[in-house]
Amino acid sequence: MPEMPEVQAHAERLTAEFGGRRLKAFRPLTFTALKTASPAPESAYGQPLERVGRRGKFLLVTFESVTFVVHLMQGGRLLVDTKHSVKPRGGQARFLFERRPEDTLDPPGLLLTEQGTERRAGVWCLSTPTALTTPPLHTLGPEAYTVESGSITVETLAARVQAMPNTRVHGFLRDQHAVAGIGRRLANEVCHRAKLSPFAMTRKLSRDDLAVIVAAIDECAVEGLAEERKREDMSSSKDRPSHVHSRTGEACPVCGDTIRAVEYASYTVNYCPTCQTGGKVLADNVTSKFLK
Ligand SMILES: [Zn+2]
To answer: In angstroms, what is the span from residue 97 Cα to ligand 1's centroid?
Structure first.
């Protein structure tokens, strides 16, 4: 799933390409694509796109009166659409823009697609002034990293640890209500950079541990953004930088130990025993179930 660096760089690309273009129409292509009944998308027709922003892993396509909040989930993409085909493959919704005098062809649109069968990507049309305090954005935690302010502070992270139930740090980092923008890949990478067990309990973390986590978030965010900004379109997961994520069985780039995995139904925790757990191999979830 695209995380902070991918969504942020994509928002920047789309702002550069579409900023100032006036919305001609917003068209859901499936019954489930538009998640809200009011305000009406039509209230933004004729208004120029102010920017495409980001909150957590959501893209915010912002006009003066309404903000279209787009969640890509696992297989969704918000693509620049020049073909305007009637039934685009995986098409969920499209934004059409007014023609400018300098446009020689039909102006490009934005097409939300979702491959696969999950059909969980979608668009919420929200009133711009209150968008951040309206579902689905209202319960998101503070940003793990923003371009404007950098990483979350140690103070804020400590407050989030206290505000949330005591849990494993890997799960805490992935919980969008705890901190926003980190997913499976970054949680693996941050724990490795911080040399912390992914299973360390959050309430046992010292102030120094939290400072190390913040520094790791910063490193991973800066590197991920730099990589992603070089691209013309959003990367696929195999192209994203990683030291441990999706590298089960490979050598740790820091110490050479073999990278291990704990498998869950919908994700894998990757870690290096030497760097992170004092050499201890964490219980493999799949194997453990058989032993019960
Ligand atoms: Zn290592």
So the answer is: 50
Q: How far is CA 270 from CA 156, 246, 252, 264, 276, in A?
A: 26, 7, 11, 11, 11
Q: How far is the CA of 220 from the centre of ligand 1 (A)?
A: 16
CA of 217 relative to ligand 1 center, distance in Å: 18
3-state secondary structure of 48: strand
State the distance from the centre of ligand 1 to the C-alpha of 248, rounded, in angstroms: 12
Q: Per the confidence metrics, is the pTM higher than 0.90?
A: yes
Measured in angstroms, how far is the CA atom of residue 257 from the centroid of ligand 1? 5
pLDDT in tens, 33-84: 999 999 999 999 999 999 999 999 999 999 999 999 999 988 899 999 999 9
Q: What is the pLDDT of residue 117?
A: 74
pLDDT band, residue 291 (cuts 50/70/90): very low
**What is the predicted pLDDT for the residue at 174?**
97
Q: For position 2, what pLDDT does the model report?
A: 93
279 Cα: distance to centroid of ligand 1 (angstroms): 9
Q: Identify whether the C-beta of residue 119 lies closer than 8 Å to the C-beta of residue 32.
A: yes
Please report the pLDDT score of residue 116 as a whole number: 79
CA of 271 to the centre of ligand 1 (A): 8
Task: With CA atoms as reference, report the closest residue to 26 among 2, 14, 43.
Answer: 43
